[in-house]
Amino acid sequence: MRGEKVKSTLAFIGILVLGLLFFFGFLVVGIVLLLIGLLIFLGFYLYIRLKLWWRKRHPPKELESPEDYF
């Protein structure tokens, strides 16, 4: 009877550990995906802001005479 109790306790602990690993594994994957999405969004935002700042600081050159084309 004692052997059955030990086996069932070990099985319960094993299932519990597997369940926790799956849960925290999915949680970690979800957090990593959120962080990757946030980094992509921030990178795109900074790229747009830098591009707008560059256009503001360096407007296109006005071409007025034929010398400007060469």
Helix and strand content put the structural class at: mainly alpha
Helix content: over 70%
Low-confidence stretches: none
Mean pLDDT: 89
- Which H/E pattern describes the elements? H
The dominant shape is rod-shaped
Number of separate strands: 0
Number of helix segments? 1
Distance between the termini: 97 Å
Which percent band covers the strand fraction?
A: under 5%
Largest sheet: none
Global Rg: 30 Å
Describe the structure.
- This protein has 70 residues and is an all-alpha fold.
- It is built from one helix and no strands.
Layout of helices and strands:
Blueprint: H1 2-57
Could you give a quick summary of the protein structure above?
The chain is mainly alpha-helical. Helices cover 80% and strands 0% of the residues.
What are the key terms here?
70 residues
